[in-house]
Amino acid sequence: MSYSSVTVSTKPFDGQKPGTSGLRKGVKVFQGQHYTENFVQCTLDAMGDQLVGSTLVAGGDGRFFCSEAAHTIVKMCAANGVSKLILGQNGVLSTPAVSCVIRKRSTQGGIILTASHNPGGPNGDFGIKFNTANGGPAAEAVTNKIFELTKTIAQYRTCPTLNAEISKIGTQTYNVDGREFTVEVIDCVQDYLDFMNEIFDFTSIRSMLKGEGRPALKILIDAMHGVTGPYAKRIFCEELGAPSESVINCVPLPDFGGGHPDPNLTYAADLVNSLKKGEHGFGAAFDGDGDRNMILGHRGFFITPSDSLAVIADNLECIPYFKKTGVKGYARSMPTGCAVDRVAKAKGKEMFEVPTGWKFFGNLMDANRLSLCGEESFGTGSDHIREKDGIWAVLSWLSIMAHKKTTVEELMKAHWAKYGRNFFTRYDYENCDAEPANQMMANLNAMVSEPDIVGNTLSYGEKSFKVALADNFSYTDPIDNSVSKNQGIRIIFEDGSRIIFRLSGTGSSGATIRMYIDSYEADKSKHLLDAQDMLKPLVEIALRISQLRELTGRQQPTVIT
Description:
The protein has 18 helices and 28 strands. The protein is of the alpha/beta class. The chain has an 8-stranded mixed beta sheet with strand order 1-9-10-5-4-6-7-3, sandwiched between helices. Helix 7 (202-210) crosses helix 14 (390-404).
């Protein structure tokens, strides 16, 4: 059967500017007439000459409006001359899986339908982002092009009568405007699972979970009703032999079961409390689209994302993939704790500090200068794909534990004994009024711009810290020399302690202020002390100099990690 495309008149919408991970707004905004179509058309148009005849991937985390948006993308890809669209069954693919499929099948890119860790449901959030042919989030040059196109768009192209069957795995071929258009609906897990089997030694992990030659490791994995549910069941239960009850909240739901799919101590509190009972030796949680993770040990022993990155970095020889590829450099986002820096120095590897946003790691990976990277926002990954990858991070920990025959807690304590401990915390103040948040950042920017700030001493109680460097972080990409300015306020002290402030780019409304505190401690006798107690002087100094409480009216953060 033949189909004809149509051109629909439209007008620009204000504020369709992609953030660090695409465009995120409330569901109701995306449901507005032409809103989703406008952004999809501008995303496709930004591909330029690569669009017609291209193969693209599409899928999302299954949140509310995901299915409708998937159908919209099918119709618009057909009308815009795309040759083939590879779509996850029912429009579902985890963010890491999209990156995996893009790279494995050599496509020209992919469209991901997700607002990541933001709440879902009809009153929640939705998001769309574009990943390029390397499998990673589009660079700023591309997202800026998309944004510019959104300001002048006057029409979009669609094929309204083409209704692909996205619930059935298989290939469908259509004739659209005299061109062949193919929709291939794929199992959302299979390509990703096959790749994990190549990266890790599943046999050794399976042996550890089943207790062959030692007590079985009992695990508890919380998918938080996000996209990782099917992946967790297939990988941890069917492939690795963990009992079915090892995976909880594994049915993806449009509203994530009414929860907030962000794997941290606040929003994954039920998992933390379950681990504290002592029945499990390992716990993990994932966010809505599967790129973030939280690692817990026996009785809820919490591993900060900064420490998780450092431990994996120090033990890459336990993962077969790195035996084949070798280990290049390490990288972290600027706000992430500096624990991995010490590993890089000890191993003589390049160490990169980049702005927040996974796209900044992609250039380094494509230039073969980076093997492992991470962000303090519960994201860890390697050059196997170009996204952070929650399940990969959990498999990395299990691989290290199986190889070294040790526990989470023992592994972490041994790391601190070897390198010292970077105490780290992040305070999130979500949905603040934008005006006072912006004023706070402007005041801080003025303060760090003062030439005499270096050498100043800031004190709280008996603790004093001398300023060694203060700035608004700017990054020059060593591969393409692109410059990213105003990436966050940094105050770095002579002992290596740091205070950092950023406005998050992942919220859908208002302003989210993030305050990061990082302090190094070499004294082994202090490594097991409470992080919040150890960091209290720096926290109080940060709150005082920022006037956060006075300007925003917020006396307490929404989340502490």
